């Protein structure tokens, strides 16, 4: 097992806290809803005013603390192996088949990570992607034929190492569970406004800290993968090389919907939506594919800078925030990588689209 530094562990703890707060908001909205007053619960049913206010305060305290504590407990005690076994079974039923061609890569990674129980499943798809899913007996590495045919041996091994760390390291597992539990944040935060209109401004928190939990999970996974393989350049090259497939990742129809298994895949499978941000001076437009491509660019950027001796770059959240602000523009990463897809990458994306038919 690769030992993570204190900073990585602190980022994971922060992700758990933020996820807990997301789940706390709708319960707090229900408990403080003005609809209670219209039904008489806050007045007549609670007795005299002093007793009613005391019970009201206790209700709000419970609504604020209990969901947050339960969410934190789930993040720490999530049955990852059982959930992973269910996910793996769905992938096999959807067409995933055992493969031997990449077994030797997992054997090498087993020596590096100290864990040797792996199975490899090959998925027929031109979309390059790699996943590693924990199980009660072994970790299952899922590789698409697109990844196996387009990525070099070292690049594929680096991606597999990243996901194996996601499946095996306890800290990265906690970060992955926090990412899973935070996935319905738009529903949770916007539904709070219906229960208590006063909390409508909190709904806009769904757009703030854009996918921070995902970024934290990726950071700690990439750090552990770099430590395990001791060869960061192929990892940066592989991460950046997945960008042309960003627009098609959601079309990888295998197993469960993307938001339930994103924590296992290198390339996010979340559905494509368009975002528009208007300011007095300009308007920016981008879609989910642009976001995923930007994520891959920033992950590659962090690994590249770490390979040059800038080890703090692996935990650079500020650069990610700047990349989000650069969506819809011609911005570049600190290492000079384009955030938006280049013409060559658009051509590669067209080839994947043609292969999908």
Task: Please provide a written account of the structure.
It is a single chain. With 357 residues, the chain is an alpha+beta fold. The chain has a domain at 80-175 and 211-356. Helices cover 59% and strands 8% of the residues. The protein has helices at residues 6-31, 35-39, 49-77, 80-93, 103-113, 145-150, 153-168, 170-182, 185-195, 200-203, 212-229, 232-241, 258-261, 288-307, 317-325, 343-356, and strands at residues 97-98, 118-123, 130-133, 139-144, 274-278, 283-287. A four-stranded mixed beta sheet has the order 1-2-4-3, with helices on both faces. It has a two-stranded antiparallel ribbon with strand order 5-6. Strand 5 (274-278) and strand 6 form a beta hairpin. Helix 5 (103-113) crosses helix 7, helix 7 (153-168) packs across helix 12 and helix 12 (232-241) packs antiparallel against helix 14 (288-307). The protein is globular, with a radius of gyration of 22 Å. It starts with 5 loop residues before the first helix and ends with a helix.
Topology of helices and strands:
Blueprint: H1 6-31, H2 35-39, H3 49-77, H4 80-93, E1 97-98, H5 103-113, E2 118-123, E3 130-133, E4 139-144, H6 145-150, H7 153-168, H8 170-182, H9 185-195, H10 200-203, H11 212-229, H12 232-241, H13 258-261, E5 274-278, E6 283-287, H14 288-307, H15 317-325, H16 343-356
Parallel strand pairs: 2-4
Antiparallel strand pairs: 1-2, 3-4, 5-6
